[in-house]
Automatic annotation (TrEMBL):
Keyword field contains Iron: yes
Keyword annotations of the record: 4Fe-4S, Iron, Iron-sulfur, Metal-binding, Oxidoreductase
Keyword Cell division included in the entry's annotation: no
SUPFAM superfamilies: alpha-helical ferredoxin
Highest taxon in the source lineage: Bacteria
Alphabetical list of PANTHER family matching this protein: IRON-SULFUR-BINDING OXIDOREDUCTASE FADF-RELATED (PTHR43255:SF1), IRON-SULFUR-BINDING OXIDOREDUCTASE FADF-RELATED-RELATED (PTHR43255)
GO molecular function, one term: 4 iron, 4 sulfur cluster binding
UniProt protein name: CoB--CoM heterodisulfide reductase subunit C
Gene Ontology annotations for the cellular component aspect, listed alphabetically: plasma membrane
InterPro entries for this protein: 4Fe4S_Fe-S-bd, 4Fe4S_Fe_S_CS, HdrC_iron-sulfur_subunit, Helical_ferredxn
Family matches, as PROSITE patterns: 4FE4S_FER_1 (PS00198), 4FE4S_FER_2 (PS51379)
Ranges of residues in domain 4Fe-4S ferredoxin-type: 68-100
Length: 184
């Protein structure tokens, strides 16, 4: 798609990538072809309210159309908050969340990540959380919670295991996490 076409919102179907559907199915979106574009997922999606151009239904539609470059050029696939509301309401058990995750895997293969995603991935590797406020301990204590959440933050062994798993994924190829650490 040319930049002029993109600016006008024109989609040239003759330039679509028909292999994208198969790639998404192989990367975890096995039920993709069951989607009937009923929009129940869109009705439940916070991304719609936030105004992202591609939300779950439109991501699936773009995949059907083979619009790989349009999806990779837009940061919407990284805006999904993994709430799984879409999956809960889908009458066809398509699991739109997994399709978005599969599209993220495509983006990682293509090294097409927005800056904020890179920061989130670094944080995931360092703390076990994509978004983690290091100074939140005092606030947690004030409301009667333990200083550290019962997650990788409070369990260094679990964090080491998570880091080992991440180092064996395509994320390691991005160069944003250490490849090898001493003693690992």
């Amino acid at each position: 798609m040319s930049s002029e076409q993109a600016a006008r919102g024109v989609i040239n179907l003759s330039e679509s990538d028909s292999s994208l559907v198969n790639e998404i199915k192989e990367l975890g979106g096995e039920e993709l072809m069951e989607c009937i574009q009923c929009a129940k997922c869109a009705a439940a999606c916070p991304m719609v309210l936030a105004g992202f151009p591609f939300f779950n239904k439109r991501i699936i539609q773009a995949i059907f159309l083979g619009l790989r470059d349009a999806l990779l050029d837009d940061s919407s696939i990284w805006a999904c908050q993994s709430c799984n509301r879409c999956t809960e309401v889908c009458p066809r058990e398509v699991n739109p969340f997994e399709i978005i995750q599969a599209m993220r895997r495509v983006a990682i293969r293509e090294f097409a990540l927005p800056t904020l995603s890179i920061e989130g991935l670094k944080s995931l590797y360092d703390t076990g959380h994509a978004v983690y406020l290091a100074g939140a301990g005092n606030t947690r204590v004030k409301v009667g919670l333990p200083e550290k959440p019962p997650s990788t933050v409070a369990n260094p062994d679990a964090l080491k295991e998570l880091q080992a798993v991440i180092r064996k994924t395509a994320l390691a190829d991005l160069g944003i996490i250490p490849m090898d650490e001493p003693g690992v």
